[in-house]
């Protein structure tokens, strides 16, 4: 019998405030649009829009922002059975985005003492996790205790219950104390995961080196649990390495780029969905890349997530020029 959820995502759900006036620095930006944000929340929302059955585990502020995030997740068909509210006054994170040009974007984070990093191990329920085929773990949730222990508990429960772990490295510097901690906790979880997804820079953080080699990173992980390793290179595309030795190249689709952020989350949402629908890895890379190409042309990361028809239409439209 199939389980209630295709995957449960664990980590942060927060608020994005995206510059309405763009092609200018933050100092000259006066208006911002509010969206739900936070990489794992974006992935959950994107996959739900593609028809996946998705749940979420995370901690929100007990205030208007937290209530907004919870209802947006619910309206997006993401189950919030694993969502809790912070009783100690910690606030949900805010991400102000600056769009100086399509290539030059940055995010100004307000995440001091942020609610999502106060998720405790007691708040991760085995009963809830048992309902899922897979667990999508966001690396940022490993940055601080008690969220770190909550994630390690979820990973251990996933192992006990035969739940596949998909690790999105999702490295955000602001919450980590030092690179050694990143390398320790990323390696710990990556070794236990079936699928590891990250950018080249994020794999370098995990390996605590500079300018690492994709093949070497994948081969190292294949000594442990991983069966599939995805390494992303921005507009240059991405590579998928399978434990059986096969390597696939994914290419970026042409896009009328508005901003760069949101690419990784939309890519993960569609890639995971395609794999879960039984598509071969090289096809799944096309879904991920097409989804990202659509989101970078739009204003938000969550609200802008495409549906299956939009992704498939783009793949079809650019089939001749793909990879050229
Ligand atoms: N400018 C772009 N135009 C079209 N597709 C893009 C562009 N940038 C990225 N992509 C697609 O998105 C995928 C993921 O992008 P990237 O490697 O930048 O991930 P990321 O750093 O996790 O993204 P983010 O900027 O959201 O943190 C790429 O492999 C590519 O297919
Ligand atoms: O992940 C975050 O905390 C911020 C995101 O919500 C933002 O939209 C983004 O950077 C997506 O890549």
Features of the shown structure:
single chain, 324 residues, alpha/beta, UDP-N-acetylmuramoyl-L-alanine:D-glutamate ligase, 9-stranded mixed β-sheet, 4-stranded mixed β-sheet, 10 helices, 13 strands, 24% strand, globular, binds adenosine-5'-triphosphate, binds ligand LN3RO5KU, ATP-binding, Ribokinase-like
Short description:
The protein is an alpha/beta fold. It has 10 helices and 13 strands.
How many domains, in number, for the residues? 1
The shape, in one word, is globular
The first-level CATH class name: Alpha Beta
For the CA atoms, what is the radius of gyration? 18 Å
Please outline the major beta sheet.
Answer: 9 strands, mixed
CATH T-level fold name: UDP-N-acetylmuramoyl-L-alanine:D-glutamate ligase
Total helical segments: 10
- Secondary-structure element order, as H and E? EEEHEHEEEHEHEHEHHEEEHHH
In CATH terms, what is the architecture? 3-Layer(aba) Sandwich
Which strand order does the major sheet show? 5-4-1-8-9-10-11-12-13
